[in-house]
Structure formats: C-alpha cells, structure tokens
Write a structure and sequence with these properties.
Largest sheet: 7 strands, antiparallel
Shape: globular
Number of strands: 17
Mean pLDDT: 95
Helix content: 25-40%
C-alpha cells in the first residue's frame, strides 16, 4: 500500500488506498475471504484505475476486481499478496436518455440506485434481481447476471450497449456505444461480459432501459407441475393487453418453510399442492390487470389442474408474496451447511429434471432432500440440498454429481446466473464444455500472460489452484 501510494500520489483524492485495519471494519459481503488480501484500491476515475493496474503489472501484483461483493460462488475472494481493485467510488449515474432509452453509469452503481434514477423518467433497467440493493452494475456485467426479467429481456449480456474497461496491460478501452445496431468487427464488450474479472476491470457501461408500468396484479397459484405453470405463463404472455412482469416457481418444501419463517398464512393452499407459481402482470390499470389475471386463471383452472390460488388485494400483500420467493436466507438458518446450486435446463425439461434430481439425491443418501425454486420461464433453478450429512466428508462430490447429472445433455448449464468463481471449479472442469474452456484459456494467455487478473478463478489455470 505504501509503495502504491508513493508511486501514484499524483492522483490525490481520486485514488483511495485502504489497508487491513480499515478493511476490518467493513462487511466482507457474501464470502468471509473477500478481504483476504488485506489491501484495497478504490479509484474514483477510470484513469486512476488504469494507473493502479499498470503499477500492479510492473510489480507483479495480482488484481482482484470487486463490486458489491454479493457473489455467491467466491469469485471475489482474495489472498495476501494480492490487491483488491474496487468499483466502490465509480458510482456515478452520468446520463439518462429517455428518448433513446439508454443510461451511462459507473461500474460501482448499484442496481437499486439505477432503478430509482430511471424510474424518475418512467423507465427501468431491463434486468432485476433480489440483491438489487448491493449488486453493482460492474459485478452484474462480470457475471452476466440474469434474474427475474431474463425470460423477457435476456440476461446482462443483452442489456449492455457499450463498455469501458481497464485491460490487464493497463490500457483503458473505451467503447461507450449508445446504439443497438453495431456491425463493425468483433464486439469486445462481449468478451468482458461474463468473464468474472479474468479479462479486464469494467469502469463504465451504457445500458438499455425499458418501460415501467406500475399498474400490476400479483397472484400465487397452486400448480401440479412445471408444465402446467409454463402453460399459464404462455397464456398470459400471449395476451396483447398484458405484460408478464414475473414468473417464479416454488416447489412445496421451499414455499412452506419460507412462509413459516415469515408468518405468512398458507390456509388457502391445498395440502398436497406440489408447487406454487408466483406471477405478476401489468396492464392499463390495476383493475384491468387484476381482472385479466383472475379471468385467465379461471379459464385455465380445470384444463391445467390448478388446485388453489390467491390474488394480492394490495401492494403490501404483493410485496409479501415476493418476499416468500426472494428472501431465502431462512434456508441457512435451518440448514447452515446446505450446498447451493444454480442450474438451467430447457423449460420443457424441468419436471423430468426435478424428479430425477430428487431420486438421485435419495440414492446418494435417503435423508437428503432439496429446496427447489427459480425463474421457471427461462429454466433457471436454484437448488439447496438439505439433510443430515450434507456437509460430511465425502458428501460434496456425490451431491454435485446428483445435481449436475444430465444438465449438459439436456442443453442446459451447470451455472445459470451466479457465475463460477472458486466454488464451481470442479463443475467447470467436469461439466463445462471442453472446447469452450480451451478457447477461454487461449484468450486469457493472450490478454493476461502474467495471469494477474483474478488468478485462481475462471478460466482455471493448473498453475494457480485456489485452496
């Protein structure tokens, strides 16, 4: 830190350097080892960030990019001898263009801050997720985040029009394009999106914005399976006067335990209902949205074997519906050691996959079960394996194999939206695409021959294992 401060003192207040004593008073985020390096640089300008990277390159100091530290797979953990490069002070919302529906932001802007700023002109980002209050735009770009609206607007890759980033050689690549149509050679931003900090440090971005309609209706609907839920989703997506704003499926155990934790009354729920669909639609008015939702459900009730349902009578009740799905911390209070997974399979294969998953877990240990829930319309499931012995020595690999079995063959992915980080190293090597890994390593070697950018993370090099 002293050497960095001495060499880069020209940047003054545009570069804050933080040592282990001050980091100790900060929350490390989702992983206790995020501050393991004990040293952090917080640049306030892209130029200061580039200078830090050049200094690290000259002094062979590995760089660990960090945003809101909300990552669930250890992609931002650091070790002594490394330097954390934070986007925390790159938090400016620079320009919102309501006509073009674009926004230019610093990488350290949180999703919630962007949502609030865009809402002032009747717009929203085309992506939303539960960690909106702490997840940063740079981190969401680095992990190619998905979330609630991916079924409609795509993932982060589809939201980014332009990007600015510091590359591993210390150069600042600025391509803050604000238009959708660009056919001018290879698109460098797509190389950075989803790279988890291995190929560069994002400093600014231009994102698309979408219309926001607050006139909504929200329902919880008991369904016999994912296929029935998908049929409901297809129906409401086909209605010209409606917009589907959310479609989240919770299998029974997740719903019941989440409701019990929150004191949510499930008296309306039939006891043997396998799963519940949380659905939200918008229309020209709240009355129109509610009427269309109720009439649609009534028309489809018998055909799709619906068992029960409840439509929110107020905005507060709708928020309580969403809390059932989004506030999943109760799982770790009940089962602190529950290993969690984030897979995607084609939506039509969801029922077969979930049935097979439960069978494979029971075959591994009769006491194993799983909380299953997720973004059903795009096939993204979140899975937490529970039961006595899930953290026992030797249990990790069989559980992983039970979760990942058949996913690639179905055309899915072992990692849907959380990234790979350090937690999914084995899955990346065993269940990822081998040819894709080879190309990723070749790009890494070309851009970062010293392997200084987020070493020990994807794409994994055999000479930098992470304990």
């Amino acid at each position: 830190i002293r050497s960095l401060a001495r060499d880069l003192n020209d940047f003054g207040d545009n570069l804050h350097l933080i040592g282990s004593d001050r980091l100790a008073s900060r929350h490390p985020g989702e992983h206790a080892d995020n501050f393991g390096a004990g040293a952090m640089a917080e640049p306030a300008t892209p130029e200061a960030a580039a200078a830090v990277v050049r200094w690290c390159l000259e002094n062979d100091v590995p760089v660990v990019p960090q945003g809101g530290r909300t990552g669930l797979v250890g992609g931002g953990i650091s070790r002594p001898g490394e330097l954390i490069l934070s986007t925390g002070r790159l938090a400016q919302i620079e320009t919102i263009d309501p006509l073009a529906r674009t926004v230019t932001v610093g990488a350290g802007v949180t999703l919630q801050a962007l949502q609030e700023a865009a809402s002032e002109v009747g717009l929203i980002p085309g992506i939303d997720l539960a960690a909106r209050g702490s997840a940063t735009i740079g981190g969401m770009i680095a992990t190619n985040a998905g979330g609630i609206l991916a079924f409609r607007n795509g993932v982060m890759r589809h939201q980014v029009l332009g990007i600015e980033a510091v590359m591993p050689d210390g150069s600042l690549v600025s391509d803050l394009t604000r238009v959708l149509k660009v056919s001018a050679g290879p698109d460098i931003k797509q190389l950075l999106i989803g790279s988890e900090g291995a190929y560069g440090f994002v400093t600014r971005a231009v994102l698309k914005l979408e219309s926001f309609n607050p006139m909504r209706a929200t329902a919880l609907v008991g369904v016999p399976d994912a296929t029935a839920a998908l049929s409901l989703i297809a129906h409401f997506r086909s209605q010209p006067a409606l917009q589907l704003e959310g479609a989240e499926l919770m299998w029974q155990r997740y719903l019941r335990d989440s409701a019990a934790e929150k004191g949510f009354d499930l008296g309306w729920l039939e006891a043997d209902t396998p799963a519940v669909l949380l659905m939200e639609v918008s229309a020209g008015s709240e009355a129109e949205a509610r009427e269309a939702l109720e009439e649609g459900l009534a028309a489809l009730w018998e055909e799709h074997g619906l068992t029960c349902g409840i439509v929110a009578a107020s905005l507060d009740q709708a928020r309580r519906f969403w809390a059932l799905r989004e506030d999943g911390d109760f799982m770790y209070r009940h089962f602190p050691a529950a290993p969690s997974f984030d897979v995607s399979v084609p939506p039509g294969a969801l029922d077969g996959y979930v049935d097979g998953l439960r069978q494979r877990l029971k075959a591994t240990d009769p006491g194993f079960d799983a909380y299953v829930y997720g973004h059903i319309a795009d096939g993204n499931l979140h899975i937490s394996v529970i039961g006595n012995g899930v953290s026992a020595p030797g249990a990790k690999e069989p559980i992983e194999d039970a979760v990942y079995a058949g996913v690639a063959e179905l055309g899915g992915s072992f990692s849907a939206e959380h990234g790979v980080g350090t937690e999914k190293r084995r899955a990346y090597l065993n269940y990822g695409n081998a040819s894709r890994r080879a190309v990723a390593l070749a790009i890494k070697a070309a851009l970062d021959p010293k392997n200084l950018f987020n070493p020990g993370k994807v794409p994994y090099r055999t000479d930098t294992p992470y304990a």
